[in-house]
């Protein structure tokens, strides 16, 4: 996934990549590390010609009139190609100075003059101008004609300033990052112009770093994956080894998060809400500081010895990511700020374009009002009657709602305070019946399920067939009028409370394991079914073992073709449920914030809380971006797989932190310790995390099977 959300943006990104490739800019970066030079200065105006520095500036201020998101797309492309120079700094300075009518803005937008920012600007205290002079410390990408933009105290007034003066600049030896060689800079005869919109400036500086590092992270992922496909060891491509797949899947997850963080910050700046932009900026700071270096380091690991050479490009990208982490102050201050905002109730809010379905709002609003007016005990029936319970299902049970209409319905139900009941297993079992079942099956099951009269469970997993579901052994033998099912199912949630089950059984053992499987609907009251509760590590019994002993299933309870059940088990209706999720940070974080309400946290505890909130934030951003892509008819790609993988880690980490805060009081059962135990199932249920990583590596990244 890239930041780009339109074909025009993708064309622009490609033009940046083509320009960088034609000039072999990576070789210039490598040379500058040895020479301490600034080769980028010779072609900064060419970057300006591409529109990088003026794209986001409105036409009235002399810019191209594009969006901040357009700028982020170009900076991401620059990061992927490792285009050197103070790109983010010049973009940010050009934007704010053009809007306040500064004469220097024209040169910045054209790329005729760069802007630079002290390395400590985003993480340290402002420097103080004394007697017209100021020590700026290390300044990345310093050149003699650079415009300094810095947080300063001038005549007792703290703020961000555009600064010019006589410079005493000393190159720093052994530079880490060849894209922006640093100098120690002292200015005298300082002439400072206060920047009016300092918050917007900082937002854009962080956005520039985030977008650039999104490109870095994506590039090193691509390099690692391409290498893993062709590098052979022990007679096989190393990409076929699970250990390598796990690393590549982790890199994919980080890359998707970084892209989403940059897109989110660009969207927030474009929307013009300073409070929302601040949330997005802090979250992006935390994520970039942690994830960008991790991806670059893993790329070197995948590349092995070749990645450790100076001639390979991998170390140049690693150096860039490490420098970004330093410029962002390791994300430490941002974590603490984000923790404070989270405890204060600040949440990211998303506004979606539902113009295409606005003409249906009156009818949907009336239906929502009808549901809200019904007594509590009758609301589910009212939701089913108005077709708002599962609006994405086809008529006559739903509205065949596209993503935009689903979101409009959600908004109207929120308006009247109505919460849909969770259909649980029925939420994906019934769409299979709707798409592949018979008219009689639809008539028998769909309406009663919506009304709450039928509850479903799933008879899929077996003792020897968990993540490898196709290895199931439950057999179905043909008899007069139907089938006899014999076998054992396990980990079946709520089997003791369900009236019907969807069940996979092997109808032809002579064919490969993914074939010869049939999809059955099983009456849980049928003779021969023995349900035995399994006590979990929590002490409760939600799961069950289900033994099938010669259970008769009539032919009319077969869904789809005999021996064609594997495909049905892996698919649902194409028009799947679309939702933004609630306005909170997830039940785990909401419970944590309630637990610590009024409790003073130490510095390290606040930093950890900030990290947790950043993770929750990016989860919601991934959800929102997926919805935006669906609304525009774009495939969300890897988003759903990444969302599950990172969501599991996050949801397990939150109660662990909450339990740590309890100290010795955690020796007694509490909601935090209970959730810690319960959430261990998240990395097992629905496919273990390790198997899902393998699947992501193979299906999304194209690594070979082992």
UniProtKB/TrEMBL annotation:
SUPFAM superfamilies per record: Acyl-CoA dehydrogenase C-terminal domain-like, Acyl-CoA dehydrogenase NM domain-like
One Pfam family from the record: Acyl-CoA_dh_M
Entry GO terms, CC: plasma membrane
Acyl-CoA dehydrogenase/oxidase N-terminal domain ranges (all copies): 7-103, 362-453
Top-level division of the source organism's lineage: Bacteria
InterPro entries documented for this protein: Acyl-CoA_Oxase/DH_mid-dom, Acyl-CoA_Oxase/DH_mid-dom_sf, AcylCo_DH-like_C, AcylCo_DH/oxidase_C, AcylCoA_DH/ox_N, AcylCoA_DH/ox_N_sf, AcylCoA_DH/oxidase_NM_dom_sf, Mycobact_Acyl-CoA_DH
Domain Acyl-CoA oxidase/dehydrogenase middle: 457-551
Domain Acyl-CoA dehydrogenase/oxidase C-terminal: 208-330, 564-701
Named cofactor requirement(s): FAD
One term of GO molecular function: flavin adenine dinucleotide binding
Alphabetic keyword roster: FAD, Flavoprotein, Oxidoreductase
UniProt similarity note: Belongs to the acyl-CoA dehydrogenase family.
Family matches, as PANTHER family: ACYL-COA DEHYDROGENASE (PTHR43292), ACYL-COA DEHYDROGENASE FADE34 (PTHR43292:SF4)
Name the record gives this protein: Putative acyl-CoA dehydrogenase FadE
């Amino acid at each position: 996934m890239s930041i780009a959300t339109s074909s025009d943006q993708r064309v622009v990104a490609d033009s940046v990549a083509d320009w960088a490739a034609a000039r072999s800019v990576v070789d210039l970066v490598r040379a500058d590390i040895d020479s301490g030079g600034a080769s980028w200065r010779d072609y900064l105006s060419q970057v300006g010609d591409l529109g990088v520095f003026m794209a986001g500036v409105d036409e009235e201020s002399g810019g191209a009139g594009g969006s901040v998101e357009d700028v982020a797309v170009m900076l991401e492309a620059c990061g992927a190609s490792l285009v050197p120079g103070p790109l983010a700094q010049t973009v940010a300075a050009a934007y704010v100075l053009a809007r306040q009518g500064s004469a220097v803005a024209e040169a910045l937008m054209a790329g005729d003059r760069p802007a630079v920012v002290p390395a400590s600007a985003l993480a340290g205290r402002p420097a103080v101008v004394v007697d017209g002079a100021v020590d700026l410390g290390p300044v990345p990408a310093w050149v003699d004609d650079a415009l300094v933009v810095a947080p300063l105290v001038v005549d007792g007034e703290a703020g961000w300033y555009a600064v010019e003066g006589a410079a005493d600049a000393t190159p720093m030896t052994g530079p880490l990052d060849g894209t922006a060689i640093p100098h120690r800079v002292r200015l005298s005869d300082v002439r400072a112009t206060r920047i009016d919109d300092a918050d917007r400036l900082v937002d854009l500086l962080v956005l520039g770093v985030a977008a650039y590092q999104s490109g870095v992270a994506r590039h090193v992922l691509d390099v690692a994956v391409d290498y893993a496909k062709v590098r052979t060891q022990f007679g096989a491509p190393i990409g076929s080894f699970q250990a390598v797949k796990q690393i590549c899947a982790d890199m994919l997850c980080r890359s998707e998060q970084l892209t989403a963080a940059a897109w989110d910050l660009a969207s927030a700046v474009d929307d013009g809400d300073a409070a929302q932009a601040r949330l997005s900026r802090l979250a992006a700071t935390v994520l970039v500081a942690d994830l960008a270096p991790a991806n670059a380091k893993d790329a070197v690991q995948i590349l092995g010895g070749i990645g450790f050479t100076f001639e390979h490009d991998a170390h140049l990208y690693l150096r860039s990511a490490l420098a970004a982490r330093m410029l962002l102050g390791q994300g430490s201050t941002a974590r603490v700020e984000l923790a404070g905002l989270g405890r204060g109730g600040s949440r990211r809010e998303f506004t979606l374009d539902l113009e295409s379905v606005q003409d249906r709002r009156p009818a949907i609003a009336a239906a929502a009002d009808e549901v809200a007016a019904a007594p509590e005990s009758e609301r589910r029936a009212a939701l089913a009657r108005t077709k708002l319970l599962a609006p994405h299902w086809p008529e006559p049970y739903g509205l065949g709602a596209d993503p935009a209409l689903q979101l409009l319905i959600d908004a109207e139900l929120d308006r009247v305070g109505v919460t849909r009941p969770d259909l649980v297993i029925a939420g994906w079992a019934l769409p299979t019946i709707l798409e592949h079942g018979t008219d009689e099956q639809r008539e028998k099951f769909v309406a009663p399920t919506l009304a709450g009269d039928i509850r479903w469970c799933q008879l899929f997993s077996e003792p020897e067939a968990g993540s490898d579901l196709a290895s199931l052994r439950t057999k179905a033998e043909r008899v007069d009028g139907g089938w006899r099912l014999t076998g054992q199912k396990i980990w079946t949630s709520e089997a003791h409370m369900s009236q019907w089950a969807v069940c996979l059984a092997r109808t032809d053992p002579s064919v490969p394991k993914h074939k010869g499987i049939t999809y059955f609907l099983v009456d849980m009251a049928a003779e021969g079914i023995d349900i035995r509760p399994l006590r979990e590590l929590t002490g409760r019994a939600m799961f069950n073992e289900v033994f099938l002993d010669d259970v008769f299933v009539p032919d009319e309870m077969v869904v789809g073709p005999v021996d064609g059940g594997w495909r049905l088990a892996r698919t649902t209706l194409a028009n799947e449920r679309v939702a933004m999720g609630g306005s909170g940070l997830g039940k785990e974080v909401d419970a944590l914030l309630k637990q610590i309400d009024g409790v003073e946290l130490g510095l390290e505890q606040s930093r950890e809380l900030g990290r947790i909130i950043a993770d929750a934030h990016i989860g919601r951003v991934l959800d929102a971006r997926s919805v935006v892509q669906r609304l525009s008819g774009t495939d969300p790609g890897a988003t759903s797989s990444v969302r599950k993988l990172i969501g599991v880690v996050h949801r397990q980490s939150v109660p662990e932190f909450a339990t740590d805060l309890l100290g010795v009081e955690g020796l007694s059962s509490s909601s935090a310790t209970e959730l810690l135990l319960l959430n261990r199932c998240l990395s097992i249920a629905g496919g273990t995390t390790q198997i899902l990583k393998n699947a992501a590596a193979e299906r999304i990244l194209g690594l070979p099977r082992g």
